[in-house]
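QA checklist item 7 of 12: single-chain prediction sanity check.
[x] sequence parsed
[x] length recorded as 294
[x] structure emitted
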Amino acid sequence: MTDFTTILTHPGSAHKDEFLACCVLLATSPVTIVRREPTADDLADASIVVVDVGDSHDPALNNFDHHHLPDDQAPTCALSLVLQHLGLYEDATAFCDWLEPAEWFDCRGPNATAKWLGVERNIVNRLNSPIDGTLLRRFASTTKHQAGEPVWEIMRMVGEDLLGYLRSLRTRLTFIGQHAELWTLGSTAAAGEIPAAPTVVFLPRTDPLPEDPSAGMDRYVMEQGWGDQVVAVITPDRRGAGYGLSRHRDHPHLDFTKITSEPDVHFAHLRGFVAKTSATEPKRLLELLALSVA
């Protein structure tokens, strides 16, 4: 993205799309946010990022407005355009389940969004958060936001966390793909094509161990198209030398309360979706899974 000195967005009521777009932009360059209508000079000045206003989508000039786009185009908001320019939109649509509904809500409104989601209109209101409301109201309450002010600092934190999540998760998925093994319940570790039988994704312990060994496992399974076959994942226990066993998306095939009495199982959740074991050998881990079959 071309270097910029100012972020400019529209005055009046604030919406989630330009708020989040500004958050992402602050994470790339901590500049002042100004809320007013842009001039022709603003739109022609690449040092000013114009967001969600101005009727211009011109990344070369750092203009990111979607309101002039045709109605029959897929819902696209200011955040979408900024993420596209940063080369992160594809991963964002894959990893951020909230993004597409946010695009629909901004472009089509609550009624069409509820219909698209297949829910009653009142369900949309039930998902509103006072955090969203407060931040948007505070963002809308003044025409300028600068470093050191609470709203500006929170916005930068949001942007940094979002960009960090997107960039680190792609790295994490690559790591899992390099190390993960596919196991079939009742057999030794499997290689090659994923089998039709109930399957487990096993992530062996590495050195160094990732800070959160289980992070990204669900995304990895779904990205590989294995959601229908995988019933559980096994990942290193970051608090011990053993492993954590967990049902994939709460799959009913397994109930880990069945192994509570096993000597090498030191924790099994009462709802049966997760357990911790000191076992490290694949044969024993498979035995524990076999004993957990519901």
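[x] summary fact logged: The two ends are 53 Å apart (CA to CA).
[ ] second reviewer sign-off
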